[in-house]
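Question (not urgent): is this output format expected?
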Amino acid sequence: MSKRDRPSKQRPPAPETVQSDWRLFLAVPLPAAVVELVSGLIDELAAEEWPVRWVAPGNAHLTLHFLGETPPERAELLRLALGPVVARHAPFRLRTADLGVFPNQRRPRVLWLGLHGPAHRLAALHADLGATLRAYDFPAEDSTGFHPHITLGRVRDPVPRTLPGAIRRRFAEISAAGVVSAAVPRPVPIDEVVLERSYLGKGPPRYEAVGCYPLGERGRSVTNG
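Got this back:
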């Protein structure tokens, strides 16, 4: 059994009720081809038995803002406010790129698949959403240095001394094999933002879309920015 398949030792969260806060985040959904790529990468990397908590491939997405626990009535207020903000931005397209880590190669904490393209447009969308969140007293991340990426996994503590080198070598092998590369990209259309509610339990989180917001006019073709 791989580490990806082992049951978590964490205590399960308390059962949710109708009064429970909603755990919310804003994200861009990924096309099937990119979800398939992410799934293959996670399967391949999980075989290394690194101390990493891998993302469930079906849950892969491009996170814009994490809001955390939110009372249902405030969630509804936000749900109604987001549509006009997102619609101010025309659709565009990113593309998959290389593998990387945060915060740096010496101290890897998050493993990710990078995205290239008109990142300034995604940063503008991120900033516009952040301003709206702050106007409604929600937490919002600063858009300075915003780096588009798809999270693959998060490193657990303690971090073995050999892990940074092992990650660098394995990423280089995957890139050399052409599995992921900026030269062989998959398109990632940015044409919708989703307000997601996550449910925690014994397995991977379950996500429910509580609001879907198209960029620009409905039916407008995706451009390359």
